[in-house]
Specification:
By secondary structure, the chain is mainly β. Helices cover 0% and strands 50% of the residues. It has a five-stranded antiparallel sheet with strand order 1-6-5-4-3, with no helix packed on it. A five-stranded antiparallel sheet has the order 2-10-9-8-7, with no helix packed on it. Strands 11, 12, 13 and 16 form a four-stranded antiparallel sheet that branches. The chain is globular.
Length: 231
């Protein structure tokens, strides 16, 4: 994930970034760094041999090509453990700031994603339950600080239509590698989900990954869980 070369955005622009905006700041970004100054965060990365940057302000506004002046108020920390992490930092008020990278859409590039939160990180649970229609179900729940993660509007195919909805991206491990099955919407009001494993999906392990919640200032970190097949 660290050996990547193409950025998503190269121009210096101001992005209004409402609360429902994606946490993704770039694709195929190498050598990313993160710092915090006065409540705003700056993310830098390399693309096509040159450094790129974005400043993420407390209200969620993002300015690509901008830089923060002043001393970095954050420091590396092991107080929070999150998957797919490239950097996890903390400020003296207890807030966590992080960069993660993962292949959310198989046909697209590895995404560099930014998060900021307080307390425990996003929690995703996953389990394989046997047996239904001669196969198994993968079931789980997404939550943050004990609150279920779910949305209020979505398409018939399960694509979220508001800033709260989330898909869990489910993969199967078979043939020596991870393969995407599908994304499935977390249900209202429990944050739970369930997927029947088709015969051609059956593997030895299953993995779920979810984008963290976007609740005001909180941009929760992305979460991942793995479970063994029940068969």
């Amino acid at each position: 994930m660290r050996q990547v070369i193409v950025a998503l955005i190269t121009a210096a622009v101001v992005a209004p970034a409402p609360a429902g905006a994606s946490l993704m700041v770039a694709q195929w970004a190498s050598r990313p760094t993160l710092k915090v100054v006065g409540g705003a965060a700056e993310v830098d990365w390399t693309s096509s041999g040159r450094r790129q940057s974005v400043v993420i302000f407390p209200n969620g506004t993002r300015r690509y090509g901008a830089h923060l002046r002043g001393r970095d108020a954050s420091f590396p920390t092991t107080a929070a453990s999150i998957p797919m992490a490239l950097a996890v930092r903390q400020t003296r008020n207890g807030s966590f700031w992080a960069l993660q990278a993962w292949h959310r859409i198989p046909s697209e590039g590895v995404e560099l994603r930014f998060s900021r939160w307080k307390g425990a990180p996003t929690l995703l649970t996953l389990d394989a339950v046997c047996c239904k229609w001669r196969s198994e179900n993968v079931v789980g729940k997404a939550s943050f600080h004990g609150r279920a993660i779910y949305g209020y509007r979505s398409t018939r195919t399960g694509v979220p239509l508001d800033k709260y909805g989330r898909n869990v991206y489910l993969d199967t491990y078979r043939g020596g590698k991870w393969r995407r099955m599908m994304g499935i919407l977390t249900h209202r009001p429990t944050g739970r989900f369930s997927l029947w494993i088709r015969p051609h999906w059956q593997g030895t392990e299953y993995r779920g990954t979810i984008i963290g919640p976007n609740w005001g200032w909180t941009l929760g970190p992305d979460a991942e869980a793995v479970t063994q097949s029940s068969r």
